[in-house]
Amino acid sequence: MGSAVTAATPPAAAARAAALRQTIAEHNFRYYVQDAPTVSDAEFDGLFRELQALEHEYPSLATADSPTQRVGGAPAAAFDGVAHRVPMLSLANAFSDDEAAAFDRRVREALGVDLVLYAVEPKFDGLAVSLVYEDGVFTVGATRGDGSSGENVTANLRTVRAIPLRLPIDAPPLLEVRGEVLMLKRDFESLNAAQAAKGDKLFANPRNAAAGSLRQLDARISASRRLTFFAYGIGSVDWGGRDAAPPTQDALLRHLAELRLPVTRERAVVLGLPGLLGYYRAIGARRGALPFDIDGVVYKVNDFAQQERLGFVSRAPRFALAHKFPAEETATEVVAIDVQVGRTGALTPVARLKPVFVGGVTVTNATLHNEDEVRRKDVQVGDTVIVRRAGDVIPEVVRVVPGTRAAGSRPFAMPTACPECGSAVVRLPDEVIARCSGGLVCPAQRKQSLLHFAGRRAMDVEGLGEKLADQLVDAGIVRTPADLYRLDAASLAALERMADRSAANVIAAIEASRETTLARFIFALGIRHVGEATARDLARHFGSLEALIDAGEAALLEVRDVGPVLAESIARFFAEPHNRDVIGQLRAAGVRWRDEAPQRSPPGRFAGLAFVLTGTLPSLSRDQAKALIEAEGGKVAGSVSAKTNYLVAGIDAGSKLTRARELGISILDEDGLRQLLAPPRD
Ligand code: IVH
């Protein structure tokens, strides 16, 4: 702003603008903080427009703390980082009365007193922020981030009407206010109604809506969402040498309220454990009727001198505790059990539920985690089940309500073919997770496998990152890695945000990737458990892809470091016709590699023998024993089966030893193993 403009601003206009700013701030405070407006919306709008007009005429009057600046400016490219002057710590959690009692006991013992005065507050379910006021003016607002530094969201926070842009005249020179940004339940409902009307995505709960609204690079969007704020503490502060520092949490909050910062009325000061639990229960009973979501209560030793004596443990104060409400549970009916395929091919059974309201959101799905879990809980379609939802956690089925099973209902069975692509579903012996074996062709896994295929250590297609992979797969342009080699620069350049130049670069990188090594190609296929080193071993051992494809599990087990799990995974991958098709297509597209002269390591004396280790050996660690066995070509498996040749048992051997005895398997101690390993005498 040039001085010419300032010089041209008549003092009367400046005085009127200052008066309007103060009046508007006052009305904002009555409306947003006290919830008790004293003027009509029309009167308020009149004042606001008068100020806007003045600032328009005399731009030097449009200061950063003017209420007209709450609308958000031009979008930012990214948030800057803000280092917190005092770290933003977290709170220790308690979930039971016993844990609350233990907290009170620890505090009393550490302070050497019989009874403690506590400040008790709701635990707001929103986002922690820090607001820095310098000489009473709001200058920097930041998210908590990792506690040491967060994101600079000043522009977004300015749009929150409950946050004063300027504090009253008697504010300290520096005051960092800590508190929580939230969306009131009623504002959340109207936001979601508006989102639904526009066909936009709905928010799961007020917390997510608040987070999504605050972390908008375009502050105008934040401005359009109704957020609010409650202060619950301070960070760094300079009380200005006066005798103003409040001595207790309660006095601090009263002081913040005098400075026109919003402080909840739902707080109290209580005495001892009965006071804590009384508050917990009282507010728990009114939880649903509160205008905002809370997920528990916070207990704080009221006296700051006592707080200081208690100090901190790691990242949490010893003087405070979050006593959380239990996860909410409710009953509903299982309409179906579907199986979802994740990006790594993991199959997860999901219960489709009759919609039910629990823990603040309507739940229609709940995870059943895995096949064993479904069996253990014995969940069947048509059953009435208890569903639990805690905080942000995915809702889960807790148990079946007995006696609700319909006649003719049947137990759940994991499909044998992937619901997405029809490839075989595989569950390896030691794993609880069943997986789709159609790595390269399964739509659910396409992005993942494409990224892996193009990765630097695989086919090394520079420029094919997550964004491009998403676009290519979403647009249906690339279904399998072989499709990459059919792309041209024109179809790439047609994608959003893809300049001609970068399209040409990606095409060049794809071209260059056609020539590769056998090891890289094997790694690029993304066979489960096959890392770079194994891919190299496989290439060296078999020399050609054909030999690898034709190798059965037994031949695979001869490769250095390949155990039963890996051998089965590799054999399964190549047994899947879809995967062989893609390999054929890649070849047809001109992907080439040099075959190698097979270098089979000479079979060791343990070649073809399977060992299992159990218990603690007197001198060898488990890894050392395993390495010795494998160096001789033996395999070490995790569990005893009819295929096991030797069990090596140490102290405290348990069920594996019993099982080996039942099966009549040779049992060795460490000495026995060493004798077997000793070079043969001739
Ligand atoms: S005091 C030293 N008071 O809970 C910790 N925190 O784990 C100072 N929270 O994300 C925090 N309501 O944002 C405090 N009345 C309250 C709170 C509260 C919610 C959040 C806080 C932080 C988490 C602490």
Description:
α2 packs antiparallel against α3 (41-57), α4 (97-111) packs antiparallel against α10 (272-286) and α17 packs across α18. The chain starts with a helix and ends in a 5-residue tail after the last helix. The chain is 37% helix and 21% strand. It has 25 helices and 26 strands. Strands 14, 15, 16, 17, 18, 19 and 20 form a seven-stranded antiparallel β-sheet that branches. A five-stranded mixed β-sheet has the order 2-13-10-3-9. The longest helix has 23 residues, at 11-33. It folds into five domains: 11-69, Helix hairpin bin (Helix Hairpins, Orthogonal Bundle); 93-324, D-amino Acid Aminotransferase, Chain A, domain 1 (2-Layer Sandwich); 329-400, OB fold (Dihydrolipoamide Acetyltransferase, E2P) (Beta Barrel); 416-554 and 563-594, DNA polymerase, domain 1 (Orthogonal Bundle); 610-677, BRCT domain (Rossmann fold), CATH 3.40.50.10190. It is an alpha+beta fold and 682 residues long. It binds 2-(butylsulfanyl)adenosine (IVH). 2-(butylsulfanyl)adenosine (IVH) binds at residues 89-91, 121, 123-124, 128, 144, 180, 232-233, 298, 317, 320, 322. 2-(butylsulfanyl)adenosine is lined by residues 89-91, 121, 123-124, 128, 144, 180, 232-233, 298, 317, 320, 322.
